[in-house]
Amino acid sequence: MVYESNINITIDTICPWTYLARRRVQRALDQVRAAHPDCPTTFKIKYSPFQLYPHANKEGEDRYAWYKKLRYSDSEEKMEAYTVLMSAYGADYGINFKFGGPVANTLDAHRVIQHFQAQKGAEVADKLVESLFSQYHEHERHPSSRETLLAATAAAGIPEAEAAVVIDDPRAGLQDLEARLQEQRVNGVDTVPFIVVEGRRRDLQLEGAREVDEYVKLLEQTVRESS
């Protein structure tokens, strides 16, 4: 009997470490699937919402200056060291990190992700999330503008007319999203990435962007306990 395991990744699309962790999880999945071609355990990635900065405005502000002030007390030296580090990490996983453009509230991005994940499934949601990450972190675009969201839904194969109904209605999916965000708080999730792999016997979890081999161990453990 095939056991289907969800890999729940809690994300905020403005978090570079979450983008990196997602790529590492995908690489770990490829390794496990190659090592166990006849494995009765299948894995599916699902996304849960989290807002690192829920009070950020919707219009946005300069991301580089904002991040430098928030994380590094306006130290240009520390900010430059960070960009060099993240660029090196990203290059290993096909991510061309850039650090300009606007940072803004991600509520609408989460609203769209959760709506279409529920309506159209994990594969569509994965393409949508990939586009949102790439647009923000590699192309310096607004994380949740109408233009960004329409581009992401198009990349996921969602017709523009269907996507626009959700994007243009700020109430669409909002109640469900707020419930999911509250659930995260109740469960003690206070940072991203936060990854939970559902197992037949127990759920396994990791917090923070870990190395690929740590994700492989988590997936292998789930395979062993699900057989």
Describe this structure in words.
With 227 residues, the protein is an alpha+beta fold. It has one domain: Glutaredoxin (3-Layer(aba) Sandwich), CATH 3.40.30. 55% of the residues lie in helices and 13% in strands. A four-stranded mixed sheet has the order 2-1-5-6. It is globular and about 50 Å long. The mean pLDDT is 95.
Please specify the SSE layout and strand pairing:
Layout: E1 3-11, H1 16-35, E2 41-49, E3 61-62, H2 63-72, H3 76-91, E4 102-103, H4 107-120, H5 122-139, H6 146-155, H7 160-167, H8 174-186, E5 194-197, E6 204-207, H9 212-226
Parallel strand pairs: 1-2
Antiparallel strand pairs: 1-5, 3-4, 5-6
Helix pairs in contact: 1-9, 4-5, 5-6, 6-7
Instruction: Give the H and E element order.
Output: EHEEHHEHHHHHEEH
Total number of domains:
1
**CATH-defined topology:** Glutaredoxin
Strand order of the largest sheet: 2-1-5-6
Task: Work out the helicity level.
Answer: 40-55%
| Beta-strand percent range | 5-15%
What is the C-alpha radius of gyration, as a whole number of Å? 18 Å
Q: Say which CATH homologous superfamily is assigned.
A: Glutaredoxin
Count of helix runs? 9
Question: Given this structure, which CATH class is correct?
Answer: Alpha Beta
Structural class: alpha+beta
In total, how many beta strands? 6
Low-confidence stretches: none
- Architecture, CATH level 2? 3-Layer(aba) Sandwich
| End-to-end separation | 9 Å
Mean pLDDT over all positions: 95
Shape descriptor reads globular
Question: How can the largest sheet be summarized?
Answer: 4 strands, mixed
